[in-house]
Amino acid sequence: MAAETTTADTTRTPQGEGPPALPADRFLNRELSWLDFNARVLELAEDGTLPLLERVKFLAIFAGNLDEFYMVRIAGLKRRLSTGLTVRSPDGLTIREQLARVTERTQELVHRHAVTFEQDVTPRLEAAGIRIVHWSDLAEPETRRLREYFRDQVFPVLTPLAVDPAHPFPYISGLSLNLAVQVRDPDTGNRHFARLKVPNNVPRFVPVGAAQAPDATGQATFLPLEDLISAHLTSLFPGLDVVDHHLFRVTRNADLEVEEDRDEDLLQALERELARRRFGPAVRLEVTETMDPQILDVLVSELEVSPQDVVTVPGLLDLASLWALYDLDRPELKDEPFVPATHPRLSEGETPKSVFATLREGDVLVHHPYHSFATSVQRFIEQAAADPHVLAIKQTLYRTSGDSPIVTALIEAAEAGKQVVVLVEVKARFDEEANITWARSLERAGCHVVYGLVGLKTHCKTALVVRRESGVIRRYVHIGTGNYNPKTARLYEDLGILTADPRVGADLTDLFNTLTGYSRQTSYRQLMVAPHGIRSGLVDKIRREARHAAEGRPCGIRFKVNSLVDEGVIDALYEAARAGVPVELFIRGICALRPGVPGLSEGIRVRSIVGRFLEHSRVMAFCNGGEQEWWIGSADLMHRNLDRRVEVLLRVCDETAQRELQRVFDAAMAPGVGCWELGPEGTWTRTAGRDYQAALTAAVTEHAG
């Protein structure tokens, strides 16, 4: 591996002028802060007050999150390290130092995760009639039936692969479960190594009961698929003695690097890179605690990973598969079913209202999942598709569901003769293939499909409807913080504005002309748009608050984002806090800012809420001398969002919508709310209290009623 050369950090935005200088240790490490976020997810899995299967769900989420973290973030660090020329992170760590700390922290969290499942959750599941057993626990009638199942359903899809001079070490696909098997020739005594992939097209947890499913009382017993295969290894290696076997799992680099060339079709370049993704280098090797050291040496050598990349897991590997248990029909072990409410302005009793008529009366702020996506945003697009007065629909799509009603409505609109323009971001990570499929379906229906801009991802969530009304053209707009995905809209907390404000309509028309044509417009009336306008716009507004503080005028800043990493924004917040501006930050995930540091950030509070719904909306509020200013949009405060994406923040001018945003912030930052608070040393401390999301659910339901 190439030696690491350290240079100055060229990605940082220069800090504002003026003494005294900001301290060098003012940033927390991004990767370790992300691991702290996943630790908060793990704390919910450890929380004995939650319904049992909800704890199982959080165990699965933790595992899936960690997989993606390694596939993308750690893979990116390793790729930069391999070049030999790198930079220190803003907190001063080299890449090697970051990787070492990530490994240490990950091993600690993985151990907690496994212990929570094995020693706490599993016994509780068993008490509730949901058992996970091993082959040695089974009685003869059960083993007889499972032998038949193995013979008929599993054995035909297994392929043992020998490793010897005539058979090179096989390719191990990313995130697959594998058995490393050691066998011995009884005649010669020679030992041989073989790899056996645990198939991912067979259920991971095999029902043990004769009915192959939970009984009427919900009682269910499961055998891990790898246990079933291990019990039948002799049938896969006839004539040989099976000496031992060990389970392992590999994580590979899955971060696409599409070489974008203006002269090459983006879809072709992306499809070529997708084919390469499965062959990315290994970045993590997970093994069980019982792994034989000699077998481990073979795996480390053949997979070309370092010992630091090995994560030892007590118990079962790949607990992301626990979603199969969560899907059991045991409602008494889950949260009460949640039913989103229709926004009261979008219906009269049970009768839907025209979205267009409603918006002519004023803006509507929808708050998902508390407000139904289906009866607000989805209905907006569906009514536009069916309305004979609608001339055009323009929309950005970053991620959507497999059976998307939004896409269906757009196709129907095109088939009805409306002009439909869709910007499908085919570079949306892990949704590339699905988005390519949607793009081609839309093109076949006659939609004008654009694939994004060279060098930028289009991440903004925008829809524009052009309608002729009594000879006059009127534009209707939706701008939101979340994807046009009806499935995640029931799980992710997001905000959106539906409006007929002509200034916003004109702005979005200009933006779509930029996205689909050659316009270089960078300034707008009611929008801030990245990559040119969001960082500078926010920093200007933060500095304005500092001036208000210096003049003794009302001042204050409130941000709600998923991640706060951008050094330019953080430094501006530090300067504002030094000037006496109170700053409240509601951050779900990564936070590189240190709050509460004497002389730097005493006036900054950072709070995180992790719960039933994924906090996903982005909101920025400025006191502005008493003339409150609110913004919502798609951008997190990270380099990639502010420099390498098309993002949109919308100024919210409707007074009712402003009051609703104020209530959201007041509820989240109030005393006595269950949350995590960030301290100056970078430690998150959990505080028990009222369930913020449950309170919002009750408030929206009461308002809707």
Automatic annotation (TrEMBL):
Keywords: ATP-binding, Kinase, Magnesium, Metal-binding, Nucleotide-binding, Phosphoprotein, Transferase. Residues 1-13 have a biased composition (Low complexity). Residues 354-520, 527-690 form the Polyphosphate kinase C-terminal domain. An intermediate of this reaction is the autophosphorylated ppk in which a phosphate is covalently linked to a histidine residue through a N-P bond. One of its GO terms (cellular component) is polyphosphate kinase complex. The keyword ATP-binding applies. It catalyses: [phosphate](n) + ATP = [phosphate](n+1) + ADP. Residues 27-133 form the Polyphosphate kinase N-terminal domain. Its EC number is 2.7.4.1. The active site is at residue 459. Mg(2+) binds at residues 399, 429. Residues 143-325 form the Polyphosphate kinase middle domain. One of its GO terms (biological process) is polyphosphate biosynthetic process. Residues 1-22 are annotated as: Disordered. Its cofactor is Mg(2+). ATP binds at residues 65, 492, 588, 616. It is an enzyme of class 2 (transferase). CDD domains: PLDc_PaPPK1_C1_like, PLDc_PaPPK1_C2_like. It comes from the Bacteria. GO terms for molecular function: ATP binding; metal ion binding; polyphosphate kinase activity. Catalyzes the reversible transfer of the terminal phosphate of ATP to form a long-chain polyphosphate (polyP). Belongs to the polyphosphate kinase 1 (PPK1) family. HAMAP family: Polyphosphate_kinase. This is Polyphosphate kinase. It comes from Geodermatophilus tzadiensis.
